[in-house]
Design brief:
This protein is an alpha/beta fold and 237 residues long. It folds into two domains: 110 residues, Rossmann fold; 110 residues, 3-Layer(aba) Sandwich (Rossmann fold). It has ten helices and seven strands. The strands form two sheets. Strands 5-4-6-7 form a four-stranded parallel beta sheet, sandwiched between helices. A three-stranded parallel beta sheet has the order 2-1-3, with helices on both faces.
Length: 237
């Protein structure tokens, strides 16, 4: 008997990739056609963005907790959120959560350590690239990091919010991402964190100038391991 995974979603494309990965990884671990029970709830991305644009992280936390409560009520044993940006509100969520969580950035940091990466390029929304979550978690793991320039951050954020969340993936945007990753490789990064859950739908391991740490799939894989008793870390409620 596996545990029931609850997905607290934010943007559709990243959440769909996370759900799909849970099901595929479940079959790899549990057998043909098998995967843990999984449920997903999301508020409108617009509700999240109103709070984020207003720098209202308590408001973000309330939306996450609302989803957490609904998922707990239908039987979820633990929770994941396939969205790096809103993990900025995680410290406001965890103490009040009805269920324990896996933390997406903790899982990325653990995978980076497992692969002996020393300096990560971090790509994501500007709230992720400029926020405290990756510096704190990577610092705790003893891993250095670099982010794109201010101009690059602005353009990456625009591509994510105007294109990727709407499932628009263009050769021009891929070329821009690869250019930025290549520049960060040249300044000493040995892997790149695809730290927005839609980026892996654009940038693949085959196209990237650096090895990729796909935050969406890393989180989903960790959730499957936890669900089937693999002893992954969780942040207690």
């Amino acid at each position: 008997m596996s545990h029931h995974i609850g997905i607290v979603a934010c943007s559709a494309e990243g959440a769909a990739l996370c759900y799909r990965t849970v099901c595929l990884e479940g079959a790899a671990v549990m057998g043909r056609h098998a995967h843990p029970e999984v449920s997903l709830h999301t508020h409108s991305l617009a509700d999240y963005m109103r709070c984020i644009y207003a720098d209202d992280w308590q408001g973000v936390a309330e939306l996450m907790l609302s989803s957490a409560e609904k998922l707990a009520c239908i039987g979820a044993d633990f929770l994941i959120c396939p969205d790096n940006t809103i993990h900025r509100a995680f410290a406001l969520v965890a103490p009040r959560s009805p269920r324990p969580w896996l933390h997406i950035v903790e899982e990325v940091a653990a995978e980076a350590r497992r692969q002996n990466y020393r300096r990560l390029a971090v790509l994501g929304t500007r709230y992720t690239m400029e926020g405290p979550v990756y510096p704190a978690q990577l610092g705790a793991a003893g891993i250095d990091y670099a982010v794109p320039t201010a101009e690059e951050r602005e353009r990456i954020d625009q591509i994510i919010m105007d294109e990727l969340v709407y499932a628009k993936f263009t050769p021009q945007s891929l070329s821009y991402f690869l250019q930025v990753i290549g520049r960060l490789k040249a300044v000493g990064c040995d892997a790149v964190v695809l730290g927005c859950t839609e980026i892996p739908l654009l940038v693949t391991p085959e196209t990237s100038p650096l090895p990729t740490l796909d935050s969406t799939r890393i989180l989903a894989q960790a959730a499957v391991r936890k669900a089937v008793g693999g002893g992954q870390r969780s942040v207690a409620s």
